[in-house]
Structures are given as structure tokens and as C-alpha cells.
Design brief:
- The protein has 873 residues and is of the alpha+beta class.
- It is built from 21 helices and 34 strands.
- The strands form seven sheets. The chain has a six-stranded antiparallel β-sheet with strand order 7-6-11-10-9-8.
- Helix 2 packs parallel to helix 11.
- 36% of the residues are buried.
- Keywords: Hydrolase.
- This is SpoIIE family protein phosphatase.
Length: 873
Amino acid sequence: MITARAEASFEPVGRSVATARAFVRDTLQGWGYADVVDDAVVLTSELVTNAVVHAGTAADVLCLRSEDGVRVEVADHYPEREVPLHPSPADVAGPDRENGRGLLLCAAIASRWGVEYTPTQKHVWFQLDLPARRVGTRSAGPALPVDLLPVTDDRVRVAVIQIDRTGAVRAWNEDAEELFGYPAEKVTGKPLTDFAAWPHTPGTSTGIVEALQLSRWEGSYGIRGADGRVLPVYASHLRVRDTNGEPSTVCLLVRDDERAVLQTPVRAPATDPAAMGESRNVDPFEVFIGSPAPDDLDGLLQRTVERARDMLDGDAAFLLLATDDETELEVRATTGLPSARQRFARVPVEAGTGRYGSARMPAVHEDLAAVPGAVPILGGSGMRSVVTVPLKVEGRLTGSLGVAAESAGRYSNEEALRLQFAADRIALAVESARLGELERLRRGSLSFLVEASDLLAGTLDRDQTLALMAQMTVPTLATWCAVYTIADQASEPYLSYVLHEDEERIDGLKALLSKIDPPEPVPTPGARVWTAPGEAAHQAALRTSMRDLGRGSSPHLGSGLGTTLSTAAAVGGETVVLPLVARNRVIGMLTLGKPSDDHFRQEILELAEDLSRRAALALDNARLYSERMAISRSLQRSLLPPGLPQIPGVEVEVIYRAAGEGNEVGGDFYDLFPIRDNAYGFAIGDVCGTGPEAAAVTGLARHALRLLAREGFGGPAVLERLNAAILDEGARSRFLTLLYGELWPQEDGSAVLKVVCAGHPLPLRLRQDGTVEPAAEPQPLLGVMEDLELYEQTITLDPGDVLLCVTDGITERREGTRMLGDDGLTDVLATCTGLTAGAVAARVLRAVERFAAEPASDDMAILSMRIPEQPRH
């Protein structure tokens, strides 16, 4: 049964693909279907691309929600389509082809899919079923002696926080104020995500937004308090609705070491006689893990180490998972050890320094002091004895489980056999959960890279590209990020951008990185560890602490020491450097960091490497675009007059607008220059066409006019020689309309002009009485005929007169079927009596812009000259 639907249509343009992805993502997240969002986004991206890019039609996207999943339909409007009667595997596109790949993805990812044809449309649909979620049960624990009860503080505080449907805090009780330091009025209305430190890797486990949408959730995370520190808490979330049907989430939180107050007890296996008969059907996995079992890998691994520690009465336990080639083990869960320091750290199994030699067989170490380094994860932990057993599936090493104690000689072969028996019960479930996590991470990574590529391809601005690189990695892949750029082979790496998930730490991090040498620009692909930031931060914190102690500072940290320690904690974890290589040259480095001894997991580094390759190409494209734009602007500026001369007794104003983005010069041009004493030349012209070819003729015309005029040629001779020069350009020639004139200011305040109008819109003369009349007669344009017979006309501008010269971008301004035309321009000029030359040009431009709502598609040039009125005595 369909319970909700959402639909949208998208135009046949490339940007519609990103818009469609966002539409599907927002719709499914709003429905609470976060488990299938990444798969739906990837499939929608491919199908919409087929429609708007390959088929070249609009795409209709329809999302249908049901109780067990979601169905997405994508339809195109291709007008002619042959319906396949006998489809075969050969008819389906291969994975390397651009079109048809969406169907292969549907077959690989979707629960069900299909194609439906109508006379006007093709529908491709896919169904994604929701994964089954386990349902929790109630249970009770036995009566225990007082000394076995969980330990808490004198006063147990339970923070009660209510979150509305948008994720914002609606209620915040007194215990929440005491635990986290924020008064209720400071947090009400703010998103819980502003305070929650959520241990979440995209695509592998439930995020906080998804957790708040579940009917019930229980687990651990952190809350960042008013003092900036993260307090580990154990939380129980319950989704409720009020009498009006408005949903919200009630969150109960206690300190993590007081989790027994909220934690759901594990159901113990039945021991009564009635249940003994059913004991054969009890799942050994559930006996060890408890029911319900965690539904995500991290929860399962954490439950495993806690059960293993309790089973052998140990002080600590750990679980490591093997890489696919079984050469390394990665720390994934610990208890009783500093997990933040160890998580995702890797140790070799058989070779290399710090190797883990007892991974493939059960092993008991009675005293680690006698064999230091036998279990690298326990180095410096204070543990003396340890038992380790392998996790194997079909004979392949998949991990290692260990339990340790602080005293020597605690364990024997009997404990090893018990632990191995438990490891055998859970190995298959752990491996299945690990493979499921890898698959979700792969799909999440694919969606992440699709969107990252789309964002990077959408800009050619260098600074914006740098910002996007950092914002895509923080906090998704790393806690902080720094981008170094290299201008050329002889330049040193330059720190161009720094970002931290906590904005207050950016300045301190930038100051620290600025004081140390940048990483070496090595072109070798892959991530390499960079220890310099952590070492520098440690030394800076040590020096600052010593100075404060020498001054006898109070126990409260000063602002300087607090900032230094904060920066040291920010870069205290693993820092890796990935080269940015484009066109076989290292153009920079992408540096990623974790806080407080954290490590990167290999899958995240591989994803970061994929991102760095895309980012490097985008950054280099932005660099090339910037260089070419700088060259283009420089060349274009050389085609414009360097400045307008001051003409005694004449006001002059020029307004120039080149059509097209990034163009400073087009086919229109103007010039005003001195010829000799008290004689000035002016010109305004329009070259046929646009782009570089038109701009080249523009430069030829402007420079030829100046040269010929200063050689003493009159107007007709100047234009005739320019006409010959244009025709000499052959295939590169363009015909040209040109108004050229020479101006002589007179002692009586008037000005004499001699003009030649070669195919150009006629200049208009505005007299003091408001009459407007053409100031020249039309003659043939240039660049078409070889033999031209041109003549010049003489006019005299009296004080108060205005001569207006424009290009056809002014007179041919259109709005639908209407055009401004010569008559419209005449009407505008008639209203300009008494205005200065600058005011006349501005009024004409304003009238042209207001004539139509759409931006101008043609170049425009306006040259206005006015003879000022003589002052009365």
C-alpha cells in the first residue's frame, strides 16, 4: 500500500542531475528511509543522466513510499523509441559505456526493477526494500548483593532532552544543565547536532539524524559541554507523538560510566526446567552476545569485547579485524584500554616492526614483561597477562580476540579454549557484519564521490575549489584539513586553506601549520603519515605549560595555555598527506588530521585518495582557467583606449558594455584621441560577429585610425585605407560599420566637426530647443567592396548642443516583437535638453536597459559630446 508520494520534473540540462539527486535524498530522509538513501541517490543519478543528457529530454521523478520500502520511477519523453521485443544480455550496455549503465546498476543494487514503455514515455523504476530491524524485549535481572551493584556518583543525574521533528531542542531539564553546563534558554531551538559528538562513519552505521528518527535507540556518544570538553554519555531515545500527532524524540542521558541506569539488561538463557527442553534450539551466538544483538558492526564488536572480558573476568579486552589480504590487523573495539588512542590502528601480522605474531593460533602470555611487544596493542597499558584467539571463517583469518589482566599468570590453556569456543560462535556473524559494512561504505562512497565530482566540476574559481575540497573532507573524512598549493616546480608549498570542524580552533591550527615546514611534495600515490604537526603541537604545549608554571599560574588555565593545549589535542592523532597530482605534476598536498591519537581507517583513506585525484584536476583546471582569463583580460584591455583626452570647451562621456560573461571587449569599439594641436579624432564602430575574430578586427581598426589620422589623411582617405586593410585579412576579415569624425573647438565656444558615416547608425544632434536631427548621411560600410568613394560632411555644434553616437546594440534592443529603433532613441534624446554629456549617456543607457527585462545580448557603446553653454556676463 502506498503511504506517501513525491514527484518533480527536471529540465534537460546537466545541472538537473544534481537537483534530482538532492530531491530524492531529501524526500527519503524526510520519510525516515536513511538506510536506502545512498542506493536510491546513485540509481536516480544514473537514470536521470540517461534522460536529460543522453536522451536530451526532461525527466520526471516519482518517489512512492510503502510500509516495506520505497519505489522510484524515472521517465523521459524521447519522441521516437523502438520497443525491444526480444531483449537479450547483449542488448544491455556494458559498464564502461556512458548510456545504459543505470540498468546494470538497477540489476546489481535494487530489490526489484523494470522498464515500461508508453507511446510518449519510457519509465524505468526500481524498488528498494528496507532492511529488517530487530525488535527489543523487556527483561529483569536477579537480586544481587550490595557489593555487586553498579557504582555511580552520590547523585545520579539523568538529563531529559526533547527533540522536535526538525532535530532542534524543545526541552532541557535541570540535570542536563548540571551535566553539560548550558542553561535551557541557551540551547532551546538549536539542533542537537551542534552539541553531539557522534561516532559515525558515513555509509557504515546509523548517524544522529537517523537515530533521532527511529522509534527506539540506545547507545553511547558524546555531548560537547559549555567548557568545550566532550562528556561521554549513554543515551536511550524514544520516539513519541503528542495529542496533535506531532512527533518528537525524548532522550534520556547519563554519564557513560553510569550506563547501568539506562542500559537494557541482556536476556539471560533460560535455566528453569521448562526451558531446558528447548535449550537445544538456543543460538550459541545469542547466548554469548545476548538478545537482541546489535544491528551494526561497531555495536556488535563492542558487545563482543565486553562479553569476552566479563567471561574471563579480565581487566581489558580487544578485537582486531584482518584486512582482505590478512597481512594486517586493525583495532576495531576495546574495553578497559584507551580506545581513542588505539581505534583503527594497524599492526602487521607476520612481518615488520611491532608484528602481531600470535594472530593465527590461540596463545597465552603469562607475563608480557618477559616478551615485550608480543601484543602491540597492549604496549604501555599496564597489562601483564593476556590470552588471544583467532577469528576464522572457512579457514581464513578474519580477526583476533584478546582478553588481558593487570596481574601476571592469570590465564591458562583452559581460558584459551573457552575464549576460542566463543570466538568460533561469533566469527561468522562478525565477518557477515563486516562485509555488510564494507558494502554500505562502498555505496556511500560512490554517492559521496558522485556529489563531490559534481560540486568540483561546477566551479572554475580557484579559491572556491580550495574551500570545496576542505568542506567535503571535514567532518566526513577527517576532523581537520589543510590544503597546500604549489605554483610551479621552483616554488615551495604554500598553506592555502585550513579548516577544522570546530571553527574556534581554525586560527590556532593555521598558526601552528604556518610555523612548521610543509610536507615534502612526493608524487607517489596514496596517503603517507606526517608526524610534524603532532610533534610541533606537543612541544608548543610543553613550552607554554613550563612558562605558566614558572610564573606561578593558578590551577585554572590561562587563555594562552588553553588555546595551545586545544590545538595540541586537535592535531594529536594521525595526520596523513595525499599528493594532488594533475597532468603528471604535483600541484599541492591535501593534509587530513584526527584528534587525540585517533587513526584513520583504510577505507576512509582510499576514499580520500579518490577525492584527491578529482580535486587535483579541478584545482588545476581552475588554475588554467584563471591564467587564461588573466591573459584574455590583458589582451582585451589592450584593445580599449587607455583613456579619454580632455578637450577644451567640449564635454565627452563614453559608456561601453561588452556582451557575454568574462568579455571586456566585443565587436563594438570606440576611440577619442588627439591628432594635432586643437584637432581631435573620434570613432565608434561595430564589427560583424563576436568573439576573438571580431576583437581582432576591432584592434586593427582602432590602431589604423589613429595612425592614418596622425599621418595627415582626411576622413575619407582614412576609411578607404582601413577598408583595404580589412580586405587584406582574407578569410579573417569582417565587415565593419564605422562613424569617424574630426573635431576642432572654436574660440567662440562652438565646435566644428567633419564626419563620415560608413554604414553605421547615424549620429543624432540635440539642439537647445529640444529638436533632434541626424547629423550625417549614410554611406557604404567597410570590409565588403574594394573601391569606395566616401565623402565627409561638416557640421557645427553650437553651445548647448549634444552629439550622440551609438552602436546598433542600442537601437536594436528588443522586447518580444518590439524594438527601440531610431525613433525610440530620438524620443529619449529629446528629453535630455540641458543635461551634461555624462547625464545624457546615462539616461540613454537606462532607457535601453528598462526597455526589456532580459539582459542585453549585443554589445553596446555610447559616445556623447556636448558643447557647454557660455556663461552670461
